[in-house]
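Researcher: First entry.
Model:
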Amino acid sequence: MTENINENAIAILGGTGDQGLGLALRFAKAGRPIIVGSRKLERALEAAETIRSQVPGAAVEGCENAEAAIRARIVILSVPFEHTAGTVKAIRGVLQPGQILVSMAVPLANAIGGAASQVVGIWQGSCAELVASLAPTGVEVISAFQNVSAHRLQTLDQPVECDVIVSGAKDARGCIMELCALVPGMRAVDGGPLGSARIVESLTALLIGINIRYKVAEGAGIRITGLGLPD
């Protein structure tokens, strides 16, 4: 990897959106350097200022997506499904072997005028596998964070209380699972190979439907029982 890459930093592309901002807040509070990426520099700078206002002393910067992606080992894609392919294509020229690219988008049907409680089929099988098909050789793609609500992430004085199923290559998967432990109430569950994202992504649509039917403003989450893991 290049000398510009900070091994401890986390770049969040789309960190100006609700869920990406929530992750940035949580990881910044845990003491990790954060680089917020956006297609528009001014939006990234505004998000960085928001994080600093809520997490005093946070090490956070705002950059355009390509600049953010080149400066952190872990790059999280927190953009809507319809912008995922375009974002990966825009940054793949700067990505380096050894970086980890995290896919958290879901192919919800509202991207094509349908309901957010439904998913659409894509050729690769999942959004994460689509990202993997576009990423440069040597960049590991991991699926994670699809089922954690933005409201729970942004409510910093409360634990998240949600499991995160992490899928992909073993070593990179373990690295992202370690991130989950930084957030109170967020527990990582080993989802195995990247193909598991096909199942995990569809759970998001199910949770959206549950939120609607039960009027869960803060967002329903998932817990996997019987694992003997600490909460």
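Researcher: Second entry.
Model:
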Amino acid sequence: MLVVVGLGNPGVQYRSSRHNVGFRVVDLISEQLGIRLGERRAKAVLGRGTFLGHEVVLAKPRTFMNNSGEGVEYLLTRFAARPSNLLVIYDEMALPLGKLRLRPEGSAAGHNGIRSIIQAVGTNAFPRLRVGIGGPQGEGAKTHVLGGFSEDEKEIINDAVERAADAAKCLLEENIDVAMGRYN
């Protein structure tokens, strides 16, 4: 089983923000695999299905970004999954806009959502896929991540969301090493 979790903030006002790139990737995977995100729980919205014989859970935490660990801990408990069966997809300011970086484990590197997950599950040994949103230019980090993409950035991020969905499917179809070689 693979539990694919996209990070973001719940609520219509955040839908187009940079911080919600993880939600966008999970929504696209849901559409591509025909796995409806119709199950609403207190800590996450989720859907279950299969892809190439693998059981897949797609989820978006219903907590705010900084409390993402609550949703991930709930999902791992509910599906009796280990952190190694997790793929967390999220935005990353340290990467240039549109750049992807898939890793089998790592630190929070200043990302509060990942810090929350590491604290909740007790390890940093879980796969993660970072989608570059670029750093703030003349504005603070909070304003940057909660802001929307400019018209010039939209085409780049739309392409990155598609490639991130492809990377997640490649991880399922092949393995993380193949996916890293192909999408990093």
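Model: Note on the second entry: The longest strand covers residues 44-51.
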